């Protein structure tokens, strides 16, 4: 079974730009994926300081950065990681 | 770091049915001479009239002692100044004055309040007291009896607890079947000693509160007199370090981590980047809680060697707001800001170690909320902790 490790940034910029919503709905996401996903948090992924346009909130799925990680975007990334081909990004 | 700290805690219940208490407690810190003067006064009767007498007494006593007026003269001045009660034709108000110099030199002047308790290392000391008669014809004429002051002095040691109270405590339960003569000094003394023996780290306020509540219980839950108790606890200062913000020069990251690691006391890190720097330098791992907490306050994290890790500016802003609005930590929802507030309130000496690097991402005009500059929030928080909670605060920028 493929597994995914998801890390959600809880730093200031990510939290105010949508991270709070992810956390508030995290239980639903957990219910969707069950034990296929391991959840973690990061004090700050340091990604908000890169680039001109703010792409927070950030999360990572198996190390791959997810920009503008809304609930839908995050869920899609996780699905991709879980179903993508064996040699794909979800290694 | 055995810095001496004087913790003063007071608790009071007014006589049932009275809007105002006739017992008054006052405490003043004289910064220029490193003195703390505290007065507990019990005015004749109860309610507003007694409150006025007691307030006058406590104010005069504090002022006189602060300006080093001789004790006898102070007592005479108080007795002469109090207005005469229209019903009883006497003017009367008791007092206990506790004058603490340099954190350890204690001088106590008592007049008609129950005698104070001094408990050192579980032993109830009974200091020798000098009786001072206040002979003033004018005052005696209006006084119910010949005034006699008790004067005593001692050098406080770490762990000493000084407890004094109004007669509402010793006379609690008086007339009841269980204790017709009231709780009595011996009863209060035994209770207090047991309390300290069972909880050796109990705070000054908790002792005062426990004594007052027990007295009210003996009064059947409806205080028959004003019940007031004050405790002075001489102890080591509880120190706390709050580190927030990355150093302006990254080469100082190591210093930040070293100061944090070497600090003796409670430690908080506010800010994701700051936490990452300290964890990296000290080779520790941070565990972030993902419990859906507060929509405005990100969840706290944990790391070995730190008592609490939180997000930075939102959380610190919330702590400042809580103090500005006089919220008590125990009445708040459990979020990271409330946890910081609890740690701050439970400390005496608070050190802020503030990195001044500005996070460019926070200055983005598309941010839905205005994120303040850390340095400004910390300045406000430091001032509030000094004013509202009388904490010793230092701010150091890195």
Give a short synopsis of this structure.
The complex is a heterodimer of chains A (91) and B (398). Chain A has 3 helices and 4 strands.
Distance between the termini of chain A: 12 Å
Contiguous helical run count of chain B: 11
Helix content of chain B: 25-40%
CATH class of the largest domain in chain B: Alpha Beta
Major sheet of chain A: order of its strands? Answer: 2-1-3-4
Name of the CATH architecture of chain A: 3-Layer(aba) Sandwich
Fraction in helix of chain A: 25-40%
The tally of helices of chain A reads: 3
Tags for this model:
heterodimer; A: 91 residues; alpha+beta; Glutaredoxin; 4-stranded mixed sheet; 3 helices; 37% helix; 20% strand; globular; B: 398 residues; Phosphatase 2c, domain 1; 2 domains; 7-stranded mixed sheet; 6-stranded antiparallel sheet; 11 helices; 18 strands
Question: Can you describe what's shown?
Answer:
The complex is a heterodimer of chains A (91) and B (398). Chain A has helices at 12-24, 26-33, 71-83; strands at 4-9, 37-42, 59-61, 64-66. Chain A is an alpha+beta fold and 91 residues long. Chain A has one domain: Glutaredoxin (3-Layer(aba) Sandwich), CATH 3.40.30.10. Chain A has a 4-stranded mixed sheet with strand order 2-1-3-4, covered by helices on one side. The two termini of chain A are 12 Å apart. Chain B is an alpha+beta fold and 398 residues long. Chain B folds into 2 domains: 4-236, PPM-type phosphatase domain (Phosphatase 2c, domain 1, 4-Layer Sandwich), CATH 3.60.40.10; 239-397, no CATH class. Chain B has 11 helices and 18 strands. In chain B, strands 14-15-16-13-12-17-18 form a 7-stranded mixed sheet, with helices on both faces. In chain B, helix 9 (313-324) runs parallel beside helix 11. The radius of gyration of chain B is 25 Å and the shape is elongated. The model of chain B has no long low-confidence stretch (mean pLDDT 90). Classes of the chains: A alpha+beta (91), B alpha+beta (398). The interface between A and B is medium-sized, with 27 and 32 residues.
């Amino acid at each position: 079974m493929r597994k995914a490790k998801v890390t959600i940034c809880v730093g200031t910029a990510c939290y105010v730009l949508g991270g709070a919503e992810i956390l508030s709905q995290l239980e639903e996401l957990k219910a969707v994926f069950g034990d296929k996903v391991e959840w973690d948090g990061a004090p700050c992924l340091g990604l908000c300081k890169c680039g001109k346009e703010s792409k927070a909130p950030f999360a990572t799925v198996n190390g791959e950065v997810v920009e503008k990680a809304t609930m839908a975007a995050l869920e899609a990334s996780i699905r991709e990681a879980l179903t993508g081909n064996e040699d794909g990004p979800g290694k | 770091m055995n810095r001496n700290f004087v913790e003063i805690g007071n608790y009071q219940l007014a006589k049932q049915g009275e809007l105002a208490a006739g017992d008054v407690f006052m405490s003043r810190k004289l910064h220029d001479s490193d003195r703390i003067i505290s007065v507990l006064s019990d005015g004749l009767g109860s309610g507003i009239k007694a409150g006025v007498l007691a307030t006058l007494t406590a104010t005069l006593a504090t002022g006189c002692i602060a300006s080093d007026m001789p004790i006898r003269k102070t007592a005479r001045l108080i007795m002469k100044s109090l207005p005469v009660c229209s019903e009883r034709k006497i003017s009367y108000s008791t007092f206990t004055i506790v004058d603490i110099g340099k954190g350890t030199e204690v001088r106590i002047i008592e007049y008609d309040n129950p005698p104070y308790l001094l408990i050192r290392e579980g032993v109830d000391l009974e200091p020798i007291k000098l009786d001072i008669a206040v002979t003033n014809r004018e005052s005696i004429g209006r006084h119910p009896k010949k005034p006699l002051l008790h004067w005593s002095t001692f050098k406080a040691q770490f762990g000493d607890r000084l407890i004094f109270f109004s007669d509402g405590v010793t006379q609690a339960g008086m007339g009841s079947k269980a204790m017709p003569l009231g709780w009595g000094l011996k009863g209060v003394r035994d209770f207090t000693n047991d309390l300290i023996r069972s909880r050796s780290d109990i705070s000054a306020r908790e002792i005062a509160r426990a004594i007052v509540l027990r007295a009210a219980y003996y009064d059947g839950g409806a205080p028959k007199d004003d019940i007031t108790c004050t405790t002075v606890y001489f102890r080591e200062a509880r120190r706390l370090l709050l580190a927030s913000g990355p150093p302006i020069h990254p080469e100082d990251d190591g210093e930040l981590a070293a100061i944090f690691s070497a600090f003796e006391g409670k430690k908080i890190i506010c800010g994701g980047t700051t936490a990452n720097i300290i964890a990296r330098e000290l080779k520790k791992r941070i565990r972030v809680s993902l419990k859906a907490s507060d929509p405005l306050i990100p969840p706290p994290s944990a790391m070995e060697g730190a008592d609490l890790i939180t997000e930075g500016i939102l959380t610190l802003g919330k702590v400042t707001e809580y103090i500005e609005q006089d919220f008590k930590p125990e009445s708040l929802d459990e979020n990271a800001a409330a946890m910081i507030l609890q740690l701050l309130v439970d400390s005496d000496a608070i050190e802020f170690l503030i990195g001044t690097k500005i996070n460019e991402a926070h200055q983005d005009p598309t941010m839905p909320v205005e994120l303040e500059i850390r340095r400004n929030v910390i300045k406000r928080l430091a001032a509030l902790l000094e004013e509202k909670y009388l904490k010793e605060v230092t701010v150091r920028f890195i």
